[in-house]
Amino acid sequence: MTLEESILLIIYLFILCLIAVRFLSRERGWVIRRFKVGKAMTIGDRQVQEDDYGVCQSTDGFMAVLADGMGKNYGGKVSSRIAVDTMKELFRLYRSSENPAYFFRKSYHRVNTEILKQLDDGRGGASVGTVLIKDNYLYYAVAGNVKIAVYRGGNLVPVSSGHTIDVLAGDKFVEGTITREEALKLLDNTRMYNYVGQDGFREIEFFDTPIRLRDRDIVVLMSDGLYEGMDWKTIEELLSGRKKCQQKAYEVIEQINAGSRKEKDNASIVLVEGFL
Question: What is the pTM of this model?
Fold first, then answer.
């Protein structure tokens, strides 16, 4: 056997091994996850960019967080930065995937405390959405109106509801504590009633049961300036195809910038694609 033939044989055997490992991974449920990330934002027509985001990966899992700040005199910008930095710090310090619900509760209350330490109540706050991915399962938490969704098979499916008056009205109607007429009057009210950075901070919204992710699902985090600034179907179309996550994120933001909406808020998107 010549040297060239030996090299080709080694390459062939290597490819066969990779195929076998991938097949066994799928059949036996093994977890060999890697992540591709896309992040992009636009300031819109605002004077200050108050959105912020961050990602972390460790042997314990993968975390992505998006914060949409609000406040006067850079209070929103400071609040969103505190939120992202605090979430990343706590992710590095604790084995968050051992008890995601505890991690989320502890982290969000720490974020709330840190914002109040640096800013007087009312000077700043933030809507925060966080996802944690471990062993192909998605865990999420939200305070405010950051939207979390999963893109799969051409469909973008929202998994979070958010803390806005219209959502609260729907919940109260289902509970039977308000009438249908009272609920209908509040359906157009998207004002937030809960967010980090206030003395009256309430409990976060988080997963009931974790979502099992499939190969090449895309987890999507969006600020309200994005999902309120463009059609949901358009977002789905921009997420389709085989382009890299970063390119898709750029194209979504380009579409927002090119839109005809008169008042454009800060808009941000984070995409996380996992694959075997």
Answer: 0.81
